């Protein structure tokens, strides 16, 4: 619940209210309230504006997660769980979701060419928890992504298989699949 509330909005709201109260208190001669409004309100308001300027919105789910898949989350690897939580909350001070990871794969030579994470899905593939990330990738084609598949699998950790497919209109789908072969053996 709290992950869905942008910190910038909290700073802007509280800072704005305190600043207005400070100006009102100044106008009617209430010195103590005036100081509290100015000393707390204006810095909070400016902090909220700074956060808003560097805010990165959560990635939306493009398909609703079913209750059965939510139960499968228990078999998700720590990396899959961390990825899901990181990209579905507000972030601050980053250019794009997974920007550092994409740079390690050689998929981000410049900010303009970097693939953009535009959607997320969770589903079951042959009984295995799967996290699908949808990237808008007009500068890198399917073959360039597939050349980096082994690197992606190693980076996202043990017990993960990566499957890369082409989506619609310059989109690449990266599915991180929990490797059940290790559990069964």
Question: Can you describe what's shown?
Answer:
With 185 residues, the chain is an alpha+beta fold. The chain folds into 2 domains: 2-53, no CATH class; 56-184, Threonyl-tRNA Synthetase, Chain A, domain 2. It has helices spanning 7-28, 31-53, 67-72, 78-87, 99-104, 142-146, 149-155, 181-184; strands spanning 55-56, 91-92, 116-125, 128-136, 160-166, 171-178. Strand 5 and strand 6 form a beta hairpin. The longest helix has 23 residues, at 31-53. The model has no long low-confidence stretch (mean pLDDT 90).
Secondary structure: elements and pairs:
Elements: H1 7-28, H2 31-53, E1 55-56, H3 67-72, H4 78-87, E2 91-92, H5 99-104, E3 116-125, E4 128-136, H6 142-146, H7 149-155, E5 160-166, E6 171-178, H8 181-184
Antiparallel strand pairs: 1-2, 3-4, 4-6, 5-6
Helix pairs in contact: 1-2
Name the descriptors.
DUF2854, 185 residues, two-stranded antiparallel sheet, membrane, 4-stranded antiparallel sheet, Threonyl-tRNA Synthetase, Chain A, domain 2, DUF2854 domain-containing protein, transmembrane helix, alpha+beta, 2 domains, transmembrane
Please summarize what this structure is:
Helix content is 45%, strand content 21%.
């Amino acid at each position: 619940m709290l992950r869905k509330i942008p910190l910038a909005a909290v700073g802007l709201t509280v800072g704005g209210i305190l600043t207005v109260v400070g100006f009102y208190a100044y106008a009617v001669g209430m010195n103590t309230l005036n100081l509290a409004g100015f000393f707390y309100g204006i810095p909070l308001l400016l902090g909220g504006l700074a956060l808003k300027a560097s805010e990165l919105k959560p990635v939306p789910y493009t398909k609703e997660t079913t209750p059965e898949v939510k139960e499968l989350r228990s078999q998700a690897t720590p990396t899959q769980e961390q990825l899901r939580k990181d990209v579905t909350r507000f972030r601050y001070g980053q250019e794009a979701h997974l920007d550092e990871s994409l740079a390690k794969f050689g998929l981000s030579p410049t900010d303009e060419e970097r693939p953009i994470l535009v959607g997320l899905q969770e589903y079951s593939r042959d009984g295995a928890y799967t996290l699908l990330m949808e990237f808008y990738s007009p500068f890198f084609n399917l073959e360039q992504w597939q050349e980096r598949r082994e690197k992606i699998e190693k980076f996202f950790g043990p017990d993960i298989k990566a499957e890369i497919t082409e989506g619609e209109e310059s989109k690449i789908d990266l599915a991180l699949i929990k490797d059940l072969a290790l559990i069964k053996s």
